[in-house]
Amino acid sequence: xxxxxxxxxxxxxxxxxxxxxxxxxxxxxxxxxxxxxxxxxxxxxxxxxxxxxxxxxxxxxxxxxxxxxxxxxxxxxxxxxxxxxxxxxxxxxxxxxxxxxxxxxxxxxxxxxxxxxxxxxxxxxxxxxxxxxxxxxxxxxxxxxxxxxxxxxxxxxxxxxxxxxxxxxxxxxxxxxxxxxxxxxxxxxxxxxxxxxxxxxxxxxxxxxxxxxxxxxxxxxxxxxxxxxxxxxxxxxxxxxxxxxxxxxxxxx
Length: 253
Known about the structure:
The protein contains 13 helices and four strands. It is of the alpha+beta class. The protein has two domains: 2-54, no CATH class; 76-250, no CATH class. The protein has a four-stranded mixed beta sheet with strand order 1-2-3-4. Helix 5 (57-68) packs across helix 11 (196-210) and helix 6 crosses helix 11. It is globular, with a radius of gyration of 19 Å. The protein starts with a helix and ends with a helix.
């Protein structure tokens, strides 16, 4: 297995990659990789060094399928689309009392542009604001390309998304996103993602691939994505997430 790992490492140094060879080597070394990642809990820099193919979009999706046996992006987006209308209506109801201003600011973005992509974005970004006690500021961050540096933007980020935009001004979330990055331990591990919903799916994939714990500040949001959106072991949902799921499913549109 170690010889195959070294072959994969060498292949990743080439300009023109043999994707089929990389796929075959990643399948062959799967058990060794999982044993290392789960048993040793290495830093992300060590994971990247030993398994340079792992944190590329193609292999994140493949590794997730090896672990969970379902397609990462298809499962995430299909599950999300089935919940977006009810989630947005629940958010609207929660803001009618004048509370949850941050949630209202997110919903207000849809007044200007109500595309399916932005409805997905509002549903995802609004979730921690809807769930009382969650603070997404250390996990989901916006970064102006003409403002702060990447190091400043990533400071203190152990796990999350950095959403890059070029607008002179932005609302609760930018109208035009030019680059979204997945960050682990203040290091960008995947970037050039153009769509917020897709980036959330990739973040969930990275969490599974590298066996990471959900950030404490958004643990219920991530559990909701896992148990309700992606329907992964839904019977193991916590009481809080189970209650939220019931509230959504009972909501009359």
